[in-house]
Write a structure and sequence with these properties.
globular
Length: about 110
């Protein structure tokens, strides 16, 4: 799973979406998917568990703020260092999205 922060709602056309790209996270894909998937299997409600692991999902700044609040509880449920690093990286993206008016996070599933 890749995550990108965009200054505006990204288009589905990958090349055109590069014009709004602010920041990306490509290095934690499997670990992030595992962490979110574990939360889904446990039935944990929230914005993070609403992310489709196999499709695309987009979060606006308000949704990112809600998801950012879910990170501490998600971290407590992880014991794998890779998953913790992935959640920490995601927290940085969520924080930047929540504090950037008009921005979006684009989750690109496998």
């Amino acid at each position: 799973m890749d995550v990108e922060l965009h200054s505006a709602r990204p288009t589905r056309d990958w090349r055109k979406s590069r014009t709004t790209l602010l920041r990306s996270s490509y290095g934690h894909g499997d670990a992030l998917a595992d962490a979110i998937g574990s939360l889904q299997l446990l039935g944990v409600p929230g914005r993070l568990t609403a992310v489709d692991l196999y499709g695309d999902a987009v979060m606006n700044e308000q949704e990112a703020a809600v998801a950012l609040g879910e990170i501490p509880a998600a971290r407590q449920r992880c014991t794998d260092e890779r998953q913790l690093a992935a959640l920490d990286d995601l927290a940085g993206l969520l924080e930047q999205c929540a504090s950037t008016p008009g921005s979006y996070l684009w989750f690109q599933g496998d």
